[in-house]
Structures are given as C-alpha cells and as structure tokens.
Structure prediction request, 333 residues.
Amino acid sequence: MKICNLIALMFFCFQLTAQETVKIGIIGLDTSHSPAFIKMLNTDNPLPEHQGFKVVAAYPYGSKTIKSSYDRIPGYTEEAVKAGVKIVNSIGELLQEVDCVMLETNDGNIHLEQAAEVMKSGKPMFIDKPVAAKLSDAIAIFLLADKYNVPIFSASSLRYSKRNQELRKGEYGKVLGADCYSPATSEPSHPDFSWYGIHGVEILYTVMGTNCGSVSRVSSEGTDVVTGLWNDGRIGTFRGCRTGKSDYGGTAFCEKNNVAVGGYDGYGVLLTEILIFFRTKVVPIPPAETIEIFTFMEASNESKRHDGKLISMEKTYLKGLKEAAKILKNKGY
Prediction:
C-alpha cells in the first residue's frame, strides 16, 4: 500500500473511532458502582470490550436521605472530576451531554422520578439494582419504558458471573431446583430484600428462570428463608443473611450434576453487558423477569406479614399493577 493511502486509511479509522465514541452520563454518585464504572471506562487502556465508551458527565444525586449513601457523594464526585467527568446540576443538563444513561442512584425510592425524565428524552438507560424500591414503582418504570418506546434494563453483577451464565445456558442440563444465598442487610426506607437481598434473589432467577407460582417465607432476626414453588413443580429457595460471613452463592440441582452457584466476579462482567446494550439497544433481560423478581420479593414480604402463609405470585403482581397504574395517573406520566 502506498504511504499516502496508508495515511488516509489511518486518518479515516481515527475519525471513525472518534465518531463512534459513545458518551455515557451517570445519575448518582452515592454508590461504589459509579466510581468503579468510571475507572474502567475513563482509563487510557480500557479492556477491549470496554473501548469506545466514556463517562462524560454525572449528576451526583443521589440519595438525600440515606446517610450511608449521601456521605459518599463528595468523595465520589471528586474522583469523577479527576477522571475527566463533568459534574452537572440537573438530569436535564446531563441529558444534553450524553448518548445514554446509567441510573446509579442507590435509593430506589427516587428511581421512578429520575427514570421518567430520562425516558422522555428517548435515550437508552441502564438502571442499577434495585430498579425501584417497591414492586409498584418497578412496574410503573417498565410501563413508562413501553409508553416512550425506550430500551431499559436492570441487573445485578451477580447475574453475569461465569458459573451463573453457564447454568443459565443449560451447560449442566436443566436446573431442577436451586438454593441460593446472599447478604440481606436492611434499609428502613426500602421493603425487605430490595435494598440488598435482591442480589441473591437475582442469582436464584438467573439459574431457575421465571414462572414461580407461589412463595412462602420463614424469618428470624438474622436470617430469612424464602421458598418458591415454580409452576412446573421445581422448588427454589433464597436465604438472606444478616449475620455471619457476607457472601454470595448456592447450589443448583441439575440433570447432569449438582453444581455450586457462582458468586461475585466483579463489576466488569456487568459493565460489558451494559455496553453491548448501549451499542445494540437490545434489552438483554426481559422486563417480565425483572418484574417477577420484585413480585417474588413482595410476595415474600406478604408471607412474612401472614406468619409464613403461602402467597400467590399472580395476585401479588396484579395488586402491584393496580398500584402502578394509580401512581402513574397521580404523577401525570
């Protein structure tokens, strides 16, 4: 190749790379996820699967009521600035700077309000766990996504551990049942499990899939055990731990073998899936699965309120759907 042609090709590739850089905005600098994602993306040497993306702007807030969250904002804001991120004063200002959004706010109670503003802009959005604090808000968020025809998804990094994805894909045969566990520390502003136990519930759903029909729960001061009966007769359990070692895992009972469920493999595996989503606009997790995870958690709460009574998932969902419709009407969405 002639030297002039080579130079022209290099210039073209440089222009193409520059044009294809996807600008990401973060809402919420009150969680460790935000600086972790910024560090992985705004480095001079990102992983090959993370190239072509940059966090260019962030709106710091964020919980204003949960001390463990808002105390982090000043330090994480300083880290973001050092990484070249522009700090903005509103979500509206953020949306003018970016192509897509990571909603990272730790407080699920304000996700509906924040997500609604993003969805009106039409920009694709990843909503970090929990997608909302309660079932009705989670349903409302996905109803709004349908209304505005905006792709969104939510997930925990535990879903994308190597072993959990192997189980999901059936590499050990059909999963006949599973017992999964995770920390389940509580936060008074959130219903049980939506603050932290959701990690273990999502592990359970990653390996078992959807279509749980009923739920019961046994609780003590330090532990909860939730048993789900799937419509095809399979049984899955979630153990939420507030004492002892803080860890993630479990056992999947498969056709070919009994297999240890995967634990935490870092934030990078989740980030890779988020970036694929931003490029393709293809939602990797059906909204119905995320909503069922919240239905499972709410049904478990109802079971606890009724001393371990078996609770219908369908009735729990229909109640949440009715409440979601009322919320959307009252807020004028």
In short: Residues 173 and 255 are 5 Å apart (CA to CA). The radius of gyration is 21 Å. The chain has twelve helices and 13 strands. The chain has a mean pLDDT of 93.
